[in-house]
Amino acid sequence: MLLNFERLGWLKYVLLGITLLTALFLLLPIIFIAALSFGSSQWLIFPPPGWTLKWYSDLLADPRWLSSAWTSFRIAAIVTVLSVLLGLVTSFGLVRGRFLFRKTLRALFLTPMILPVVVLAVALYAFFLKIGLNGTMTGFVISHLVLALPFSILSISNALERFDKSIEDAAVLCGASPLEAKIRVTLPAISHGIFSAAIFSFLTSWDEVVVAIFMSSPTLQTLPVKVWATLRQDLTPVVAAASTLLILLTVILMALFALVRKGLKS
Amino acid sequence: MPSFVALPEVATVKRREFRSTLPALLFLALFFVVPVIALLLRSVLEPQPGLQNYVELLGSSTYLKVFFNTFMVSAVVTIVSLTIGFPVAWTLAIMPSRWAAIVFAILLLSMWTNLLARTYAWMVLLQRTGLINKMLMGMGLIDKPLALVNNLTGVTIGMTYIMLPFIILPLYGTIRKIDPAILQAAALCGANRWQALTRVLLPLTVPGMAAGALMVFVMSLGYFVTPALLGGTSNMMLAELIAQFVQSLVNWGMGGAAALVLLVVTLALYAVQLRIVGNESEGGR
C-alpha cells in the first residue's frame, strides 16, 4: 500500500533515505554558518583550525553594523504597526462587506505578493526619485508596507472568516456599542490572526533586501543592505557572525509562534 | 454566513464596510499601481515614443542570452525541486507524525532563515576551497576543484535550496487529501506497486505538482539576490538585467521594457496556476 507507511516494505527505506538526505541538505548551510562564525580562520576554512569570538567582537565594535541593525528594527517596527492596523480595517471591509468587485479587490490587495520584487523596487525607486522620498525613512516604510500588507490582510481576513459574526451581534444586543463589541469581542477572538500578521509583517520588512538596495542611501542603510554590500566585496567571517545572530532571531520567532499557536489550541 | 439577528440598516452597514477598504486601496493605488504603470509607460516613451526599446531588447543576442539563462535556470530548478520534493512530500504525508514534525521544523527553519544568510552559506560552501569541493576531492571523485560558484551551476544549487520547501509543502497537502482506500482498491483490482504509483498516485498528485511547479518557476524567473551573488557577471538573469539598466546604465526605457516582459510572463503563468488550483479545489472532496 503506497499510502500506508508500515506496509511500504523496502520502499519505506528508499523514501526515508531521500527525506533524511533532503533534511540534511536543508540544515547543512545553517549549521555550517553558525559553526564558521566561531571559527578562527579568516579564509573560512572548515573545519576551522581553532575557535574564537573575534568575529562577534568585530561585528559589535563596528558602529555601522549596529546602526544598520537599529535602522532595520525601527523600519520593521513601524511597518508592523501600520500593516496590522491597515490590515485589520481592510479585512473587516473585505470579509463583512457584500459589494461588487469584492473578489477583484481582494486579488488586487494580494498582487504585491506575486509581483517580482525587482519590478516593484525599480518602480518605487523611480517614483521616489521624483517626489524626493529616496533614501528616507518614510520611503523605506512605504515600500516595505506595500510588501507586508498582503500578508497581514491574508492572515487577518482568514481569522475573521472563521469567526462567527453572530457573537459580535449578540454583544451589541446586550448593550455594547458596535465599536466596543468589535474591540472587546471580535479582536480577542481573532488575535491569532493578528499575531501572525504582525510576525509576517515584521519579518517581511526585517529580511527584505531587493527594495532596500534601491531605497538606501550612504547614510541610511538597513541590515540586509549592509550584509549585501559587504558580501559584494569579500566573504569576511563577520558576515557569518551577523548571519548567525539573524538565524538565532528566526529560531526565537519560530518558537514564539509555535508557543502562541499551542497556547491558543489548549 | 447569515447573521444571528437582523440588525437594522443592514445595507448601510455593508456599504460602510466597503469604505473601510478605502485607505488600503488608496495606499496601494498611489504606491503600487501608479509607480508600476509609470515604469512600464517609460518603456514606450523614452528616449522617444515608440517600440524601439522592445526591438532592441528582443533583437539583440546579449539580451536573448539573458532570457535564455533565466528560463533555463528556472526550468532546471523547478524540475530538480519537483524530483526531490515529490518523494519527500510523500514520506511526510505518511510517516509517523512525531518524525514528520522534526522534518517540518527543518523545512520552516530553512524557509525563515534570512535569504542573504543562506546565500552567503552557499557562497562559502561552493567556493574553490570550500567544503563541497574538499569532500568531492577527498572521496577521489575529482582531481581538481570544480567551478561551482560565479556561474549558473552555483545559481541553480542556491535557488533549488531556496525553492524546495515551496514545492514540498503544497505537495504534502495534495497527498494528504488522497484517500488511502483508493490505493487499496487499486491493489484489490490487481495493480502492482509500480502500476499503483504510475496509474493512481502520480495522476492524483498532478494538479498539486503543476501548481507547485508553476509557483517555483514564476518565483525563480524574477529572483534577484541569489543570481546576483552566486552567479557570474557574464551569466546574468532577467532581474539583474532590469536592475543594471536602472542603476548602472540609467536607461529607464530599457529597464521598463525588461520589467514589462518579466511582469507579463509572471502574470500569465500565475493565471494558469490559479486555474489549476481553482479546478483542484472544485473537483476535490
From TrEMBL, chain A:
<dbReference type="InterPro" id="IPR035906">
    <property type="entry name" value="MetI-like_sf"/>
</dbReference>
<dbReference type="GO" id="GO:0055085">
    <property type="term" value="P:transmembrane transport"/>
</dbReference>
<feature type="transmembrane region" description="Helical">
    <location>
        <begin position="194"/>
        <end position="215"/>
    </location>
</feature>
<feature type="transmembrane region" description="Helical">
    <location>
        <begin position="107"/>
        <end position="128"/>
    </location>
</feature>
<dbReference type="InterPro" id="IPR000515">
    <property type="entry name" value="MetI-like"/>
</dbReference>
<comment type="similarity">
    <text>Belongs to the binding-protein-dependent transport system permease family.</text>
</comment>
<keyword id="KW-0997">Cell inner membrane</keyword>
<keyword id="KW-1133">Transmembrane helix</keyword>
<keyword id="KW-0813">Transport</keyword>
<feature type="domain" description="ABC transmembrane type-1">
    <location>
        <begin position="69"/>
        <end position="257"/>
    </location>
</feature>
<feature type="transmembrane region" description="Helical">
    <location>
        <begin position="235"/>
        <end position="260"/>
    </location>
</feature>
<feature type="transmembrane region" description="Helical">
    <location>
        <begin position="73"/>
        <end position="95"/>
    </location>
</feature>
<dbReference type="GO" id="GO:0005886">
    <property type="term" value="C:plasma membrane"/>
</dbReference>
<keyword id="KW-1003">Cell membrane</keyword>
<dbReference type="Pfam" id="PF00528">
    <property type="entry name" value="BPD_transp_1"/>
</dbReference>
<protein>
    <submittedName>
        <fullName>ABC transporter permease</fullName>
    </submittedName>
</protein>
<keyword id="KW-0472">Membrane</keyword>
<feature type="transmembrane region" description="Helical">
    <location>
        <begin position="140"/>
        <end position="160"/>
    </location>
</feature>
<feature type="transmembrane region" description="Helical">
    <location>
        <begin position="12"/>
        <end position="38"/>
    </location>
</feature>
<keyword id="KW-0812">Transmembrane</keyword>
UniProtKB/TrEMBL annotation, chain B:
<keyword id="KW-0472">Membrane</keyword>
<keyword id="KW-0812">Transmembrane</keyword>
<protein>
    <submittedName>
        <fullName>ABC transporter permease</fullName>
    </submittedName>
</protein>
<dbReference type="GO" id="GO:0005886">
    <property type="term" value="C:plasma membrane"/>
</dbReference>
<keyword id="KW-0813">Transport</keyword>
<dbReference type="InterPro" id="IPR035906">
    <property type="entry name" value="MetI-like_sf"/>
</dbReference>
<dbReference type="InterPro" id="IPR000515">
    <property type="entry name" value="MetI-like"/>
</dbReference>
<dbReference type="GO" id="GO:0055085">
    <property type="term" value="P:transmembrane transport"/>
</dbReference>
<feature type="transmembrane region" description="Helical">
    <location>
        <begin position="66"/>
        <end position="93"/>
    </location>
</feature>
<dbReference type="Pfam" id="PF00528">
    <property type="entry name" value="BPD_transp_1"/>
</dbReference>
<keyword id="KW-1003">Cell membrane</keyword>
<feature type="domain" description="ABC transmembrane type-1">
    <location>
        <begin position="67"/>
        <end position="273"/>
    </location>
</feature>
<feature type="transmembrane region" description="Helical">
    <location>
        <begin position="250"/>
        <end position="272"/>
    </location>
</feature>
<comment type="similarity">
    <text>Belongs to the binding-protein-dependent transport system permease family. CysTW subfamily.</text>
</comment>
<keyword id="KW-1133">Transmembrane helix</keyword>
<feature type="transmembrane region" description="Helical">
    <location>
        <begin position="99"/>
        <end position="125"/>
    </location>
</feature>
<feature type="transmembrane region" description="Helical">
    <location>
        <begin position="146"/>
        <end position="169"/>
    </location>
</feature>
<feature type="transmembrane region" description="Helical">
    <location>
        <begin position="24"/>
        <end position="45"/>
    </location>
</feature>
